[in-house]
Amino acid sequence: MFSFFETRIQPTALPPGPPPSGLVAFYWHFIRQTRSLYAAMFVTGLAVALIDMLIPIFIGRLVTLMEATDRAAAFSAAVPSLLAMAALVVIGRPVTLIADSLVRNNAVVPGVTSLVRWQSHWHVVRQSWPFFQNDFAGRIANRVMQTSNALRECVVASIRAIWYIAVYGVSSLVLMALADWRLAIPTVLWFIGYVIFLRYFVPRMRDLAKISSEARSSVMGRVVDSYTNILTVKLFARVRDEDAYVRDMIDEHTVAIAAHMRLITRFMATLAAMNALLLVSTAAIGITLWGRGDVSAGIVATALPLAWQIANVAGWVSWEVTGIFENIGVVQEGMETIAVPHTLTDAPGAPELEVPRGEIRFEHLTFTYGRSDGRKVLDDFDLTVRPGERVGFVGRSGAGKSTLVNLLLRFHELEQGSIRIDGQNIANVTQESLRGAIGLVTQDTSLLHRSIAANIGYGRPGATHDEIVAAAKKAQAHDFIVDLQDWKDRTGYEAQVGERGVKLSGGQRQRVAIARVVLKDAPILVLDEATSALDSEVELAIQEQLLDLMEGKTVIAIAHRLSTIARMDRLVVLDRGRIVEQGSHDELLALGGHYALLWKHQSGGFLPEELLVDEPPALEEDSAFDEMRAEEQPEPSTNDESPRPKA
Fold it and tell me: Angle 228-234-237 (CA atoms, 0-180°, nearest 5)?
């Protein structure tokens, strides 16, 4: 029985489309996928309300029965109706409640929650890279998680509470009016007051809930930001600053909660007074009518429980309605993240990229990152990388090197110009096939919080363990991997690396990343400071492996340490988004220009100050691959052989 209801929804099926931006449309986008379950909730909710409405009638019948002069005859005549009442209370109501609970708790709650959460994540994870750069990861995750609960509770509460009181209230009103229209007067006045009550309080509850939800998400974002960057916090001994950073947001959240609670207290006091007036006035009218002989005691005994139940239900419904609008506030906040259209999308019917040769052509690129001042990161950049050619990009921070890589991977839309791979405009092919054809090793390697094998195997889904080990050996990673042991005593390739790979040293992370790219074996290889975190001995060994990896591939390499790219077929020197020199290492040295000067000073171990006086301010492109440095100088050797991590 449970499995039948629990399998009514397939929560991880592909979504029917992107979530719309309108509030009602956003709700309907998810409701329509499971509308049969909500229809079932309407049916069970109707049945529960009608049965609850019949119970006061039963009480009135019993009072009337007990007033009979000939009790034996009256009881004998009432036996069939008494048995029907008992059956309805003992069997009918429990069965109806169980059916309602099965639909709500076993089908809707788990299925709808997971469906909304999965489809929201499915949409958000396909947003462009700048989307994630512009917000806290913690806040994005919090909105995805909270919106699913809030949306589900809105719909469920609407059916349970509003539908229930509508059915129960109207039925009760009709019964009292049929008995004596004067008995219905307090209930009619109460309903009018209740509508006014809700119109006053609910919008204010909604607004305060939205403010509180936004503050809560900001607290979450700041806390996660501190935890994610805990090493920086510890290194700079800035725990107190982080305390202040989070405390300010918690204080703001506290103020929002306090304002919300003040309104709730006024809400409860007003409702308590209304309910008290309903009961007292109904009782007063009923007793007066009974005293005058206009109604029987059974009618009064029916009217009072009906009014009492309305008063009790009103409190529950009020909280549910308040919760509905509070959750609407949460959903509205979540829509700011979830209902955002994708900015980087594939063209309709876009084909997959095919790379038979690997030629890359940058055609008159001009790019500004949308800066209001129009400052150009790339200025009419034009370059062709021949199939199988190994090209190194050289230049100071902000020259445009990493921007070229970002645009090649289509992390941003081009503003002017085009990029073609084997004659195919990358804007017209699928992003998945484009990035699948490019292997990238960055300077700041971030690993998944999974096993070593899973991280390396990420380069090629379905790779065997032997293929993973072979890739690790080519990246000079196998020797340290077999000695790993994590905090749960998993060893070797099954050891977990921690969030972002924090359990490994920088050099170990970079070797795992190189192994991942080795396993991917893409026809185009991009190396962005791929060996910067390695010590000289390991770097030399890996460079030999990288030369083998480069064989037959088109290679783009970025390095501040010129010795690491001196063996490229061609070096391209950039300055302020333009090519100022290009040629082989020997040709550029013979030219005696920018590259020769850089080589001369790097060979001496430092860069002169005159090379940096005109350096432009930090640009957005540098944050992409952590390329920014205050000066162009060779990096000190990093001791890669850190102790074996164990927590």
Answer: 130
| Residue 644 pLDDT > 60 | no
Q: Kindly list the strands in the beta sheet with 424-425, ordered across the sheet, starting from the edge strand earlier in the chain.
A: 378-385, 360-367, 416-421, 424-425
Structural domains in the chain, sorted by start = 11-338 (1.20.1560.10), 355-437+552-634 (3.40.50.300)
Instruction: Work out the angle at residue 263's Cα, subtended by the Cα atoms of residues 258 and 269, and round it to the nearest 5 degrees.
Output: 125
Q: How would residue 89 be classed by pLDDT, with cut points 50, 70 and 90?
A: confident
What is the β-pairing status of strands 438-441 and 424-425? unpaired
Distances (CA, A) of 477 to 489, 500, 519, 522, 532: 20, 17, 13, 20, 16
**pLDDT digits 0-9 by tens, 582-602:** 998 888 888 888 888 888 877
Whole-angstrom distance, CA of residue 13 vs CA of residue 33: 11
Give CA torsion, residues 80, 82, 88, 90, to 10 deg.
Answer: -120
Output helix, strand, coil percentages for the chain, rounded to the nearest 5: 60, 10, 30
Per-residue pLDDT of 128-150, as tens digits, reads 878 887 777 778 888 898 899 89
- Which residue is associated with the tokens 């060893």? 491
**Residue 571: what residue type?**
L
CB atoms within 10 A of CB 361: 16
The secondary element (H helix, E strand) that includes residue 124 is helix 109-124
Is 390 in a helix, a strand, or coil? strand
Let me know: does 490 contact 550? Beta carbons within 8 Å: no
pLDDT in tens, 615-636: 333 333 333 333 333 333 334 3
Q: Residues 6 or more apart from 319 whose CB is under 8 A from it?
A: none
Report angle CA 422, 427, 433 to the nearest 5 degrees.
Answer: 65
Number of helices and strands (H, E) in the chain? 23, 10
Structure tokens that stand for 496 in this block: 């977990």
Give me 294's structure tokens. 């206009």
CB hemisphere CA count around 31 (13 angstroms) = 18
Rounded Cα distance between 329 and 304, Å, is 37
Q: Map 193-262 to HEC letters.
A: HHHHHHHHHHHHHHHHHHHHHHHHHHHHHHHHHHHHCHHHHHHCCCHHHHHHHHHHHHHHHHHHHHHHHH
| 341 token code pair | 């259209």
In the chain the first and final C-alpha atoms are separated, in Å, by: 45
Do residues 360 and 391 touch, judged by C-beta distance below 8 A? no
Per-residue pLDDT tens digits for 106-123: 889 888 999 999 999 999
> What is the arithmetic mean of pLDDT over 601-620?
44
Question: For the segment 272-287, what is each residue's pLDDT rounded down to a tens digit?
Answer: 888 888 888 888 888 8
Query: What pLDDT sits at residue 481?
Result: 92
Q: How far apart are alpha carbons 518 and 122 in whole angstroms?
A: 28
Max alpha carbon distance in the chain (Å)?
A: 126
Residue 534 binned pLDDT confidence (cut-offs 50, 70, 90): low
pTM over 0.85: no
Question: 347-381: per-residue pLDDT in tens?
Answer: 888 999 999 999 999 999 999 887 777 788 898 89
Residue 405 and residue 528 in contact, taking contact as beta carbons nearer than 8 Å: yes
**491 φ, ψ (degrees, to nearest 5):** -120, 165
